[in-house]
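ugh ok fine here u go
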Amino acid sequence: MFAVIKIAGQQFKVQAGQSLFVPHLTGKTGDKVEFSDILMLENEGKVSIGGDAKATVKAEIVDDTIKGDKVIAFKMKKRKGFRKKHGHRTHYTQIKVTDII
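structure:
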């Protein structure tokens, strides 16, 4: 059994027992979270899509603050002396899917 869920505008294919990194969620390590925005559900060969997919994905927060890789945005105009460097690290939350109901 697997489901395709939507978290913070991104789609994730999840199964029970799976661990994955999602965009930062509010909560602490050990908190339980539920996702009810199901886009597709497959159960024993039967596929439900859209409004027919009625389920809830339950998960537990394993680690609440994980930083992604550094991303550098560098702008430069040749022969003008213009240089600008920006960088950021995206914050993620690690969750473990416990059950799909």
